[in-house]
Amino acid sequence: MKELEFIYKRVSVRKFKEDPIPVEHIREIVKAATYAPSGKNLQNWHFVVVKNKNKIAEIASIVEQKNQKLTNYIKDADKIKAFAGSVRYHTVFQTAPVLILVYAGPYDTIADTLLEAGILPREEALSYAKPNPGIQNIAAALENLLLAAASLGYGACWMTGPSYAAAEISQYIGFKKEGYYLAAMTPLGIPASGEIANPARKPLEEVLTIIE
């Protein structure tokens, strides 16, 4: 449907031109993110925009260092190779003129209430935490952000891989907000190539169930 074309314009972009992005565009893209739905309307998100190329490069270096450190805790040779090799995907943001860090804030669920009461068996209480609406709020906001970026002609890429360096990244940029943690990030810029395609999607019949 033509009305839905704005959705299909979104692709994961990992190579960018050096062209700067106007601040007003960044603000509009983040504003679109804040219009995502959130449980209890808590809007438990915070966006940190990094525009300094040297700082973005240093964040990539932080991810590389943490990747090397964590590799020492892996014993299986194949898993060591896979994890160490993944760092090149976890640092693709370093080619972008802008990096947006997305933080998730506190969100109490029924699971928290049940655990606090301490009556229901812990395993059952934790089962009610599986939907994790707090992080779903962040996912919804980031999808809005990606769609807005694509609609304005920019490329972005949903990234959670570098989150193992979340504490170090937050310390480096000096961001601290009570109860918030780095949940995801995305580079933002003009795609370096105009020939970008989405990977194949599973057939709708495989992922759709309609109950009459």
CATH superfamily: NADH Oxidase
Total separate domains: 1
Ends apart, CA distance between termini: 24 Å
Number of DSSP strands? Answer: 4
Stretches where pLDDT falls below 50 for ≥5 residues? none
**CATH topology call:** NADH Oxidase
Share in β-strands: 5-15%
Please tell me what the overall shape is: globular
Biggest beta sheet summary? 4 strands, antiparallel
Mean pLDDT comes to 96
Report the CATH architecture: 3-Layer(aba) Sandwich
What are the secondary-structure elements, in order, as H or E? HHEHHHEHHHEHEH
Q: Count helical runs.
A: 10
Query: What integer value in Å does the Rg equal?
Result: 19 Å
Strand order of the largest sheet: 1-2-4-3
**Which percent range fits the helix content?**
40-55%
CATH class identity: Alpha Beta
User: Class by helix and strand content?
Assistant: alpha+beta
Write the layout of secondary structure elements.
Layout: H1 5-8, H2 23-34, E1 45-50, H3 53-71, H4 77-85, H5 87-90, E2 98-104, H6 110-117, H7 122-127, H8 133-151, E3 155-156, H9 166-173, E4 181-189, H10 204-207
EC number: 1.6.99.3
Enzyme class: oxidoreductase
Protein name: NADH dehydrogenase
